[in-house]
């Protein structure tokens, strides 16, 4: 080899260049010849072109290069000193070395050429060859190789694309399918098996009707068979599809899937627009959505607690019963049932046990009814019943007596034996009214008549009972006068920090100084106020009274404490509630930090988003928020962390269950854990015994209110109690201003 011919060992650039670079941008050639002059001339002939050239003078060097580097083309002399070119090609074929070979030989025999071509040589050049012949052969070989590489790359991309497409189609959450002109499946993805239980093999070639629910077949035929060629080729329809099961029918024995199917006409491009080729469809499983809609619809017309029809559904059924009775000239009865002594049970055992009592009572009432009768929960402890197609009033009387008899048996509420009764009012169509509202109102009046006569009984409505309505109107007027004549008063139940024994706040509770009946608690008149639309003016008064009482205490120079105000759901729903609060605080000069608003859990589920908005405004104002009677409502914990709450109050029904200081009361512990996890202040209500106090304090609740410490007391007494905990030097300073304020 002459000086101009680089030895393979020294051709570092060529040998070490990346394979992908050589193959993609610049072909890599191996020149093998034992004649130095021929090798040098070959090298010089090719060096000016964009090739990477590597040379070898013998077979061993050629094999070494082929082992290390990937070459696009090998120019191979057949006669080498250590082995033949045929042996090198055998080596390449045995190792699967993908390189094209152009054989160059001075051998005039045909056997050498045939042997080279049999071993896969691209071409055979006989020495001496012309310059043009060599260059043309090399260019053609490389061009064919580039074309083969490009074709392979395209094929790989197509294969990758197809794999990706199939993967996307098979992993789609929807069923993707195609139908031919006869409505037979030509393609369906794996989702059909996952959702319906049918494999692809079971469906291909089958008519789409094998999957369609029998009741939806006519609609399916209309959608799939209608030929549309305009812009409305896309159609949408909901169809129920059969699921493969163990039964012969293999339909909806256990699983029912409701599917909206988007069917799109597919046309062959070479045919006319009128030639319908087939259908491409996407079926999406909306079973969960349909079930959710059914649940929502059911809950809209049923009471969540008792699973009975609610007031809305009851009125619908009563309306249909009235129409039917009018057509058939028959009678029907409407009953209004109010549970006696329920409030006592609810206040004594707590709301949870009260709810259990309502559920058990509803089951007993339902067992007394005939087929076709409707029992509904009107609200609270009130139930309504419609008894269609009465033969006479005796039918209604018999059922009412069954109600009373079934309720006489004691109710077991986790070991507590509870006895209740019922007051039942009955109105009969058409003699006691011909409209829904008339019948309900008169049944309600009859029920109140039973209550007035001692409860635990039933009575049919008659016109003389209207006096009861007049009494209710009189009570409403008396409550309105109470607002005007300042008969209402705020009482306060102190909240104690048991670690220090100091009063750190108080809950404001309303009292009515009734001229004839004396001091009435809020529970005796507020339910009536809510029913008759008086909660808004009463709440306005309560907010003003709380601010005035705080103003007196602050003016006397007392220690800053926080007073809590129970907020009626009706008052929160009022659009100007926030402005009322801000106006009162500004008018009386009260710091918002001294006010805490108490809401019940049920406010959180009435209209949670609106409640969050209103309470956020309060918090921005500086007023804190507490959840009263926590754990007795039906609010979702998922909403709890979204509400701007500062305090959780443990309901007294849970506290009353504490009888053993070493006992385990999981509800109490759960509420304490929730408060701690959310970083909220915790107050226990209804603490009446030392055992209860010690158990609560030992488990992390240090703020309490209840008869163990103080009953609800008037403002005068409350300030007196606060003075007792004030430092000695402040007591004499506080007393005269405070007394003067009350004398004023």
TrEMBL record:
<dbReference type="GO" id="GO:0003824">
    <property type="term" value="F:catalytic activity"/>
</dbReference>
<dbReference type="InterPro" id="IPR035965">
    <property type="entry name" value="PAS-like_dom_sf"/>
</dbReference>
<dbReference type="InterPro" id="IPR001633">
    <property type="entry name" value="EAL_dom"/>
</dbReference>
<dbReference type="Pfam" id="PF00990">
    <property type="entry name" value="GGDEF"/>
</dbReference>
<dbReference type="InterPro" id="IPR013767">
    <property type="entry name" value="PAS_fold"/>
</dbReference>
<dbReference type="GO" id="GO:0006355">
    <property type="term" value="P:regulation of DNA-templated transcription"/>
</dbReference>
<dbReference type="InterPro" id="IPR000014">
    <property type="entry name" value="PAS"/>
</dbReference>
<feature type="domain" description="EAL">
    <location>
        <begin position="472"/>
        <end position="726"/>
    </location>
</feature>
<feature type="modified residue" description="4-aspartylphosphate">
    <location>
        <position position="77"/>
    </location>
</feature>
<dbReference type="Pfam" id="PF00563">
    <property type="entry name" value="EAL"/>
</dbReference>
<dbReference type="InterPro" id="IPR001789">
    <property type="entry name" value="Sig_transdc_resp-reg_receiver"/>
</dbReference>
<feature type="domain" description="Response regulatory">
    <location>
        <begin position="28"/>
        <end position="142"/>
    </location>
</feature>
<dbReference type="GO" id="GO:0000160">
    <property type="term" value="P:phosphorelay signal transduction system"/>
</dbReference>
<dbReference type="InterPro" id="IPR052155">
    <property type="entry name" value="Biofilm_reg_signaling"/>
</dbReference>
<dbReference type="InterPro" id="IPR029787">
    <property type="entry name" value="Nucleotide_cyclase"/>
</dbReference>
<keyword id="KW-0597">Phosphoprotein</keyword>
<dbReference type="InterPro" id="IPR011006">
    <property type="entry name" value="CheY-like_superfamily"/>
</dbReference>
<dbReference type="Pfam" id="PF00989">
    <property type="entry name" value="PAS"/>
</dbReference>
<protein>
    <submittedName>
        <fullName>EAL domain-containing protein</fullName>
    </submittedName>
</protein>
<dbReference type="InterPro" id="IPR000160">
    <property type="entry name" value="GGDEF_dom"/>
</dbReference>
<feature type="domain" description="GGDEF">
    <location>
        <begin position="330"/>
        <end position="463"/>
    </location>
</feature>
<feature type="domain" description="PAS">
    <location>
        <begin position="161"/>
        <end position="232"/>
    </location>
</feature>
<dbReference type="InterPro" id="IPR035919">
    <property type="entry name" value="EAL_sf"/>
</dbReference>
<dbReference type="InterPro" id="IPR043128">
    <property type="entry name" value="Rev_trsase/Diguanyl_cyclase"/>
</dbReference>
<dbReference type="Pfam" id="PF00072">
    <property type="entry name" value="Response_reg"/>
</dbReference>
């Amino acid at each position: 080899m002459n000086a101009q011919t680089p030895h393979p060992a020294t051709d570092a650039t060529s040998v070490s260049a990346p394979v992908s670079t050589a193959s993609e941008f610049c072909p890599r050639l191996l020149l093998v010849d034992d004649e130095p002059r021929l090798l040098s001339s070959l090298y010089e002939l090719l060096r000016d072109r964009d090739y990477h050239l590597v040379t070898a003078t013998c077979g061993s060097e050629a094999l070494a290069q082929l082992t290390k580097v990937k070459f696009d083309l090998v120019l191979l002399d057949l006669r080498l000193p250590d082995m033949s070119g045929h042996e090198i090609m055998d080596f390449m074929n045995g190792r699967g070395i993908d390189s094209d070979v152009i054989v160059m030989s001075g051998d005039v025999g045909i056997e050498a050429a045939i042997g080279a071509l049999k071993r896969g040589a691209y071409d055979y050049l006989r020495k001496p060859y012309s310059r043009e012949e060599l260059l043309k052969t090399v260019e053609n070989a490389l061009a064919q190789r580039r074309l083969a590489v490009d074709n392979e790359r395209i094929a790989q991309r197509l294969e990758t694309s197809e794999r990706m497409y199939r993967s996307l189609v098979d992993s789609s959450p929807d069923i993707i399918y195609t139908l031919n002109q006869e409505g037979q499946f030509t393609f369906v993805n794996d989702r059909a098996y996952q959702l319906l239980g049918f494999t692809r093999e079971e469906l291909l070639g089958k008519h789409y009707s094998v999957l369609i629910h029998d009741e939806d077949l006519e609609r399916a035929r209309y959608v799939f068979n209608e030929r549309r060629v305009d812009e409305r080729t896309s159609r949408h329809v909901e169809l129920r599809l059969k699921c493969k099961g163990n039964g012969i029918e293999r339909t909806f024995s256990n699983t029912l899937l409701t599917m909206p199917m988007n069917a799109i006409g597919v046309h062959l491009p070479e045919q006319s627009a009128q030639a319908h080729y087939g259908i491409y469809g996407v079926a999406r499983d909306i079973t969960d959505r349909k079930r959710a809609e059914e649940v929502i619809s059911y809950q809209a017309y049923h009471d969540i607690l008792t699973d009975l029809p609610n007031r809305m559904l009851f009125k619908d059924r009563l309306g249909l019963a009235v129409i039917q009775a009018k057509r058939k000239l028959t009678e029907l009865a409407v009953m209004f049932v109010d549970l006696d002594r329920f409030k006592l049970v609810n206040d004594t055992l707590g709301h949870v046990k009260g709810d259990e009592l309502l559920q058990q009572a509803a089951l007993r009432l339902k067992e007394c009814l005939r087929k076709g009768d409707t029992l509904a929960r009107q609200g609270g402890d009130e139930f309504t019943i419609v008894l269609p197609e009465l033969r006479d009033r005796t039918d209604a009387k018999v059922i009412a007596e069954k109600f009373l008899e079934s309720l006489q048996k004691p109710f077991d509420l986790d070991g507590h034996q509870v006895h209740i009764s019922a007051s039942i009012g009955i109105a009969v169509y058409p003699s006691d009214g011909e409209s829904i509202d008339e019948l309900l109102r008169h049944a309600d009046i009859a029920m109140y008549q039973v209550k007035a006569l001692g409860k635990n009984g039933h009575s049919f409505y008659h016109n003389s009972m209207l006096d009861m309505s007049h009494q209710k109107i009189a009570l409403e007027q008396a409550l309105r006068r109470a607002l005007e004549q300042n008969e209402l008063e705020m009482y306060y139940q102190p909240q104690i920090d048991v670690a220090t024994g100091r009063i750190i706040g108080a809950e404001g509770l309303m009292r009515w100084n009734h001229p004839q009946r004396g001091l009435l608690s809020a529970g005796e008149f507020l339910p009536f106020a809510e029913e008759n639309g008086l909660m808004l003016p009463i709440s306005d008064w309560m907010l003003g009274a709380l601010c005035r009482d705080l103003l007196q205490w602050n003016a006397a120079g007392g220690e800053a404490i926080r007073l809590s105000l129970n907020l009626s759901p009706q008052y929160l729903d009022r659009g100007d509630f926030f402005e009322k609060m801000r106006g009162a605080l500004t008018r009386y000069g009260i710091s918002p930090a001294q006010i805490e608003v108490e809401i019940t859990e049920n406010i959180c589920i009435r209209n949670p988003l609106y409640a969050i908005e209103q309470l956020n405004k309060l918090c921005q104002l500086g007023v804190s928020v507490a959840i009263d009677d926590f754990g007795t409502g039906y609010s979702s914990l998922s909403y709890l962390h979204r509400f701007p709450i500062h305090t959780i109050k443990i309901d007294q029904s849970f506290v009353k269950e504490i009888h053993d200081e070493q006992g385990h009361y999981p509800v109490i512990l759960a509420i304490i854990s929730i408060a701690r996890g959310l970083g909220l202040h915790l107050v226990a209500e209804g603490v009446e015994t030392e055992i209860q106090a010690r158990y609560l304090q030992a488990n992390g609740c240090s703020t309490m209110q209840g008869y163990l410490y103080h009953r609800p007391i008037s403002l005068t007494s409350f300030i007196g109690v606060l003075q007792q905990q004030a430092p000695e030097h402040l007591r004499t300073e506080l007393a005269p201003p405070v007394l003067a304020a009350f004398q004023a």
